[in-house]
TrEMBL record:
InterPro entries reported in the protein's UniProt record: PPR_At4g14850-like_plant, PPR_rpt, TPR-like_helical_dom_sf
Organism: Gossypium mustelinum (Cotton)
Pfam family, one: PPR
GO molecular function: RNA binding
Name under which the protein is recorded: Pentatricopeptide repeat-containing protein
UniProtKB keywords: Repeat
A single GO BP: RNA modification
Ranges occupied by PPR repeats: 78-111
Length: 111
């Protein structure tokens, strides 16, 4: 990869991160979906901060199923991603699911 291509990818990645941040502040399914598509296109979903922001955007837009589907795609979960998913469940009034996630998180040794 040339230096120019590397720089373009770097700037695109941070543009997606900014879009994700704005979609968590003003939740909308359209914004979250666009950010998700862009994140897939440039490979941003390999980075947990981008995943956490996208999960939060889906949750705040009241699309818990989309947040759950995104969470299920990742096997390398850190405590921040687990907490974002627990918070998403609580925000969407799925308290039993939130408790199940908490139990899974502690059983996996991630705390």
């Amino acid at each position: 990869m040339s230096q120019r291509d590397s720089y373009r990818l770097y700037t695109q990645f941070y543009d997606v991160i900014e879009l994700l941040k704005s979609s968590t502040a003003r939740p909308s399914l359209v914004t979250a979906t666009i950010a998700h598509c862009l994140a897939i296109e440039i490979g941003a979903l390999a980075h947990l901060p981008a995943c956490t922001s996208l999960l939060t955007a889906y949750s705040r837009a009241k699309y818990f199923i989309s947040a759950l589907a995104l969470f299920d795609e990742f096997c390398d979960r850190d405590v921040i991603l687990w907490n974002a998913m627990i918070n998403a469940a609580v925000e969407n009034k799925s308290y039993n699911v939130a408790m199940q996630f908490f139990v899974e998180m502690t059983e996996s040794g991630c705390y």
